[in-house]
């Protein structure tokens, strides 16, 4: 494959986090219209959501829409209320989300934003069984006690019948990113749906790609000497610090570089931040 250009594509995920892809492209890809370039950048994220691409898509989506001010909620079941099927578990989770939305509306708060995961694993050779439980990354105006109190069996007297435990904790960032939590939520890959999400979540901002900033020779020089140098990348992208640099060599195209970067000027309070 004749790749004469190197493309720089930024994925700006909210005010604190950005990913940069630096990779070879063909002359035909370079000559594509601006609209086609931006569509391809978006399609590359959406299509073929295999395990690694799914992790990347979720990581970018979560970092675009949630911050350290938001919550990670874990919902579990006691033996009496343990669902028998995935459909029953999903229904319980939807009911809880609907209660959260109704409470927000009643209090005049904005509708909640969320990304939710239902986890379960049958025991088998070399693997432990995992009881049904749920995770939600949640942004809403309710406090932790209110969210936990809504994890009950239904209406009427059942409002006082807890289904299990509910724990809500502030999100913890690692170098401006929620990547560790995203990877944790996708640790069981064999689900029908990897996650559910509320309507209206923002997609990462993907500016027009730049095909002239880097050359093949410059990328090769960076890989040989500067690819892991935080000061070098800080000079390339002022205001951002390097979280991770990953050079990748492919036989038919050459070197690519994938960067994860964060802004240190938006740090949350101490315990919610890890360097």
Q: What can you tell me about this protein's structure?
A:
- The protein is 31% helix and 28% strand.
- With 275 residues, it is of the alpha+beta class.
- The protein contains 8 helices and 12 strands.
- Residues 44-49 have low confidence and may be disordered.
- The radius of gyration is 22 Å and the shape is elongated.
- It has helices at residues 27-31, 34-46, 51-65, 86-106, 144-149, 179-185, 216-225, 230-236; strands spanning 5-13, 17-25, 71-76, 113-121, 130-139, 166-170, 173-174, 196-197, 210-214, 241-250, 254-262, 273-274.
- It folds into 2 domains: 5-46 and 203-274, no CATH class; 71-170, 2-Layer Sandwich (Alpha-Beta Plaits).
- The protein has a 5-stranded antiparallel sheet. A 5-stranded antiparallel sheet has the order 6-3-5-4-8.
- Strand 1 and strand 2 (17-25) form a beta hairpin.
Question: What features would you highlight for this structure?
Answer:
2 domains; 31% helix; 12 strands; 275 residues; Alpha-Beta Plaits; five-stranded antiparallel β-sheet; alpha+beta
From the helix content, strand content and strand pairing, which structural class follows?
alpha+beta
Proportion of helical residues:
25-40%
Summarize model confidence as the mean pLDDT. 87
Uncertain ranges: 44-49
Overall tally of domains: 2
Order of helical and strand elements: EEHHHEHEEHEEHEEHHEEE
**Biggest β-sheet: count, sense, barrel?**
5 strands, antiparallel
Q: What fraction of residues sit in β-strands?
A: 25-35%
Short description:
The chain is an alpha+beta fold and 275 residues long. The chain contains 8 helices and 12 strands.
């Amino acid at each position: 494959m004749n790749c004469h250009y190197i493309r720089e594509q930024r994925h700006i995920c909210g005010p604190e986090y950005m990913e940069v892809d630096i990779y070879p492209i063909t002359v035909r890809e370079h000559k594509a219209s601006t609209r086609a370039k931006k569509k391809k950048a978006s399609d590359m994220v959406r299509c073929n959501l295999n395990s690694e691409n799914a992790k990347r898509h979720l990581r970018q989506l979560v970092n675009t829409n949630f911050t350290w001010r938001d919550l990670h909620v874990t919902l579990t079941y006691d033996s009496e209320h343990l669902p028998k099927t995935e459909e029953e578990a999903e229904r319980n989770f939807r009911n809880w989300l609907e209660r959260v939305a109704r409470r927000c509306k009643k209090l005049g708060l904005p509708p909640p934003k969320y990304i939710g995961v239902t986890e379960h694993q049958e025991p088998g050779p070399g693997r432990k069984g995992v009881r049904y439980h749920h995770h939600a990354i949640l942004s809403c105006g309710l406090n932790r006690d209110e969210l936990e109190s809504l994890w009950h069996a239904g209406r009427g007297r059942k409002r006082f019948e807890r289904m299990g435990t509910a724990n809500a904790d502030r999100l913890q960032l690692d170098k401006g990113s929620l990547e560790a939590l995203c990877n944790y939520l996708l640790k069981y890959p064999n689900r029908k749906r990897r996650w559910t999400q509320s309507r209206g979540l923002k997609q990462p901002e993907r500016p027009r790609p730049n095909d002239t900033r880097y050359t093949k020779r410059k990328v090769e020089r960076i890989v040989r000497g500067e690819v892991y140098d935080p000061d070098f990348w800080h000079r390339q992208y002022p205001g951002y610090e390097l979280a991770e640099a990953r050079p990748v060599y492919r036989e038919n195209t050459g070197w690519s570089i994938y960067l994860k970067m964060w802004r240190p000027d938006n740090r949350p309070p101490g315990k919610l931040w890890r360097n």
